[in-house]
């Protein structure tokens, strides 16, 4: 993923396993080419395994572990069990008929993160959208899509929200431009309902909402929306995702991710404090 577009829907676990394979290969003193020859595959295949760009085949991994000097059968069995888990389709797989590859990766990261931070200048983030708001936004963005496809996409968007009420939900911390709340989306009742949903969400202990008012002027992230994911496993570094009209770019290099994190930190300092969010939202809802 480093600094470019992902080529597959890698799960966080697959990324961790790929990095563990890299550590084992390097500890064994083997190059990509040498590992590839031992497995009778190209060096590029080894590289893609370590970068989580392909699925991990159990027979390949078992042989690699032995090539890398792993001799304890219990350790091998544990690693292979994790490989099988990493290759198992996520719940979102049932929406594969309407789910673009780039967004499949996004949903996977979203589901496995324990902290999700984001800046949104255009729309209410999908994790907080009501059904009516989501339907209106999707119809606007996909004017030629059949009604059935829109319904499937709305169902997917609502299903993603289950992570917020699971036993150990992630921290969701959103900085949202005031523009998001002022721009009419559908009938006024759609916006009233949506703002009501955000007021309810803001009361949850695992959700922080901050509004960036017009009066704050320019700020560090006026280029577009982005997300920053953090995971509960130390082997997996933070990952940033910047969306565009036709997809998204994913970044996991330290300097790149630090730039996104610094922008968010500066915006959090500029935006209205969390304790003011409910009052701001209630005031805007009364104006609609």
UniProtKB/TrEMBL annotation:
Domain HTH cro/C1-type: 21-76
InterPro entries the record matches: Cro/C1-type_HTH, DUF5753, Lambda_DNA-bd_dom_sf
GO molecular function annotation: DNA binding
Domain of life: Bacteria
Name this protein carries in UniProt: XRE family transcriptional regulator
């Amino acid at each position: 993923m480093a600094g470019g577009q992902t080529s597959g829907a890698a799960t966080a676990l697959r990324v961790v396993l790929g990095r563990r394979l890299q550590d084992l290969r390097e500890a064994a003193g083997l190059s990509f080419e040498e590992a590839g020859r031992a497995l009778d595959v190209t060096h590029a295949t080894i590289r893609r395994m370590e970068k989580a760009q392909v699925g991990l085949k159990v027979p390949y991994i078992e042989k690699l572990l032995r090539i890398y000097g792993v001799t304890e059968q219990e350790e091998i069995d544990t690693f292979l069990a994790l490989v099988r888990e990493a290759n198992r389709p996520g719940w979102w797989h049932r929406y594969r008929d309407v789910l673009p590859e780039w967004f499949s990766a996004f949903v996977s990261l979203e589901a496995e993160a324990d902290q999700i931070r984001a800046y949104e200048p255009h729309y209410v983030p999908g994790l907080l959208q009501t059904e009516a708001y989501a339907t209106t936004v999707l119809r606007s963005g996909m004017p030629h899509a059949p009604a059935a496809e829109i319904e499937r996409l709305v169902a997917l968007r609502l299903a993603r929200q289950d992570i917020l009420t699971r036993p150990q939900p992630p921290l969701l911390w959103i900085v949202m431009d005031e523009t998001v709340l002022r721009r009419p989306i559908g009938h006024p009742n759609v916006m009233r309902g949506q703002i009501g949903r955000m007021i309810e969400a803001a009361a949850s202990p695992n959700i922080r909402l901050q509004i960036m008012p017009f009066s704050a002027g320019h700020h560090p992230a006026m280029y577009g929306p982005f997300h920053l994911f953090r995971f509960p496993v130390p082997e997996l570094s933070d990952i940033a995702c910047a969306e565009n009209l036709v997809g998204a770019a994913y970044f996991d290099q330290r300097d790149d991710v630090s730039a996104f994190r610094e922008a968010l930190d500066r915006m959090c300092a500029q935006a209205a404090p969390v304790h003011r969010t409910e009052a701001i939202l209630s005031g805007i809802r009364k104006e609609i």
